[in-house]
Structure formats: structure tokens, C-alpha cells
Amino acid sequence: MTCSSLISSRIWNTTIRKQVFNHYKRRCFSMKVDAKQLANLRKQTGYGLSLCREALLENNNDIKVAQAWLDEQAIKKGWQKAEKLQGRKTGEGVIGVMVENNHAAMVEICCETDFVAQNDFFKDLVAKSTATALSHRKMIVQRGLDLGGTFTHFREVLLTHKLNEMKLSNSDETVNDLVLQVVGRLGERIMLKRAVTMTTEQDCVIGRYTHGPFTSNIDGCQMGKYAAIVAIQQPTTSNIGNEILATLATSLSQHIVGMNPSCISSKDTAGENIDKGEMLEEQYYLMDETITVKELLDRNNVSVVDFLRMECGEQ
């Protein structure tokens, strides 16, 4: 290419860029953004004012279409950020717990800072991810019942990549899509660390408890830095009311969060050298240290079937 043709090409490219910019500028001035729609869109999505304005301009002030456009941009931005943020430590986060009848789910999602851990969009991600895990557990159980199976106690460690691929309720988006949206919004590495689901017999009750910073309850998902669920069972001859049983299950979950037992009793040690202080039944009851947990269970004629405790950030 000659020098003159190169100069002509640069002038032409500069002219084209100016024309495109002027066209966009004229469009921005000719089309007004509805101030109320702009304020609502910013509040609902958490995106910056300029990006929300662009979304409304691109979509004729249609707030629903603009929100979908923003979510698409967030996923694209999230992919780019997620790649750059790989390797960063995620020592903060929240554990979500949901219980519905005889089903339970517990999901831990980690982030880099406590600032993000208490963000509403992050908590919404935890709530929706936990609800998705619970729905999966219920579907598996129902499928088994339809094939003639029975309602038995079962705990499942749900692989994180499997949960990431699951679709959210009433949506074509997956859990991973939502993760990427939140990464795009908040700019931190966010990681779905672990997920566990539980189903127990119909004569059992599942209790739950969460504790620590950022505790909250969103759409039935209880959250905190520490969490526990416990399944307790009463004999068919027992006359304890369901309300009393549910209260007992909740207080036992609180005890488990505080005392961190490693097993129920010596029957579950499988030959391991575990100190009595680590056995749930041998520990003094957190809410009444004059009795042991075993004495509490005997008084109420119930037994512990299973329990699970999580602490956010533990290895």
C-alpha cells in the first residue's frame, strides 16, 4: 500500500467512526429515557446509571426487555471477569439452608470479601441455588416413588458442576448463568463450593439453624456463616406433638452449630479414635448444660437419625 493510499484509508476510517458516533449521539438526544423507568431499572438490577440508560435506549424504554439485555451483558462480562479472577482466594461467603417437609438442602457459595457476602444480589444467588438443589432432591425422590420405591433416609453430596448446570425454577437460565451475572455485577470471584441434600423418613422431622454474620431469610432460604440440619425420629407410639418435635429439632441444630460434634454416638465411630466430647450424645446440651444431649433425647423419647454442619470457608 502506498503512502497516499494509507493516509486516505486512515481518513476514511476516521470519517466512518465519526459518522457512527454522531449517529449514536443524535439518537441519544432524539430519544428520551423515562426517568421513572431508569430509576426502577437501576434499583432492580444494581447496574450503573449509564448502563441502565443505554439498556433503555437500546430497547425503546421497555424495562423488561432492557433487564434481559442487561442480564445478557452481565453474563458476557461475567465470563470475562471469571477467567481473570481465577486463583483469587474466596474466604468469605454464605451458606443457604432450605427445609421442606422431609427434604433439605444446604449450599455454600464463597466470595472474596464480606462486602459482597452481604450484598442482596449475592444472597439472591444463594437462595436460588439452594432452592434449585432442593427441587432436584424432591424430583429424584418423587421419581423413585413413582417407580414403586419407598421413602427412606438418604444424604447426597451434590456435585457442584452438576448443580451449576441445573436450570432455575421457572427459567431457562442455569445456576451458572446467575453466578456469571453476579460476577459481572459485583466484580469478585464467586464460587459454588459445595452442596448437600437430605431426605428422611416420613416419621422424622428435620430442623435447621444458621448463625454468624449476614444471617437472613429470603424466600424460605435461611442463611449464615454457620449452618446445621438435623433429622430426629420418634417412635410410632410417641405422643409428642409435631410442634414440640420441630422446636426440639431446631434447638438441636443450634447445639450442633455451637458445639460442632463429629458423630452421633460411639456406634458411628467405625473403629476411629474419637473423643467423647466430639460425640453429639455425650456432649452437654448447649441450652441446658446440666444434662447431656442423650439425656435430652431420652426424656423426649426421640433419636437423632443424621446431622450435617457447615462452616463457610472451612477446608
TrEMBL record:
CDD domains: UBA_EF-Ts
Signal peptide bounds: none
GO annotation, biological process: mitochondrial translational elongation
InterPro entries: EF-Ts_dimer_sf, Transl_elong_EFTs/EF1B, Transl_elong_EFTs/EF1B_dimer, Transl_elong_Ts_CS, UBA-like_sf
Keywords recorded for this protein, A-Z: Elongation factor, Mitochondrion, Protein biosynthesis
Subcellular location as annotated: Mitochondrion
A GO term, aspect molecular function: translation elongation factor activity
Chief location of this protein within or outside the cell: mitochondrion
Pfam families associated with the record: EF-Ts_N, EF_TS
SUPFAM superfamilies named in the record: Elongation factor Ts (EF-Ts), dimerisation domain, UBA-like
Residue ranges of domain Translation elongation factor EFTs/EF1B dimerisation in the record: 104-276
Record-linked HAMAP family: EF_Ts
Family: Belongs to the EF-Ts family.
Function: Associates with the EF-Tu.GDP complex and induces the exchange of GDP to GTP. It remains bound to the aminoacyl-tRNA.EF-Tu.GTP complex up to the GTP hydrolysis stage on the ribosome.
The name this protein goes by in its record: Elongation factor Ts, mitochondrial
Species whose genome carries this gene: Paramuricea clavata
Lineage start: Eukaryota, Metazoa, Cnidaria, Anthozoa, Octocorallia
